[in-house]
Specification:
The protein is of the alpha/beta class. 50% of the residues lie in helices and 17% in strands. It is built from 8 helices and 5 strands, in the order H-E-H-E-E-H-E-H-H-E-H-H-H. Helix 1 crosses helix 7. The chain starts with a helix and ends with a helix.
Amino acid sequence: MLIVAAAYKAAGERLSENLLPINAHNAADLQTGSIGDVEICLAGDSAVVTAYEMKMKRVTADDIDCAVAKIARASVRINNYLFVTTDAIDPVVVEYAKKFYEETGGTEIAILDCIGFLRHFLHMFHRIRGEYLNAYQELVLSEPDSAVSQTLKEAFLALRQVAESGE
């Protein structure tokens, strides 16, 4: 969750998109009224256009069904509902998610690999990678009981070393 939040803290202004305040991630989305774990809106608006759902497990067809239900209940059109997982991505579930594009009125539902998302972001926004790394580090340090796994912390540190060395 912090990887995506840091990306929007670093690049949101350039993208004309804002990160909405993050709700407690130990509560169900129904309890908090959230559409996803991380919610993005266009600059100058508070309506969610992109929702990220973080999973420290494999994304299943049931997860896709829950996302479709949330999209249907949303008061505004959600453009993208993106799962970011630390587990393997099942190609069957990816295909299952694609079939809901028409049914949801054009909402893209996709599944992304967490480390792949981070690598892509750092490549795409290489000129602001220092801002990203600082934003992510700030989020990790301000998280009292960090849900960031040791593996992801190590990957982050390795990426930070490469970014700072100019390689």
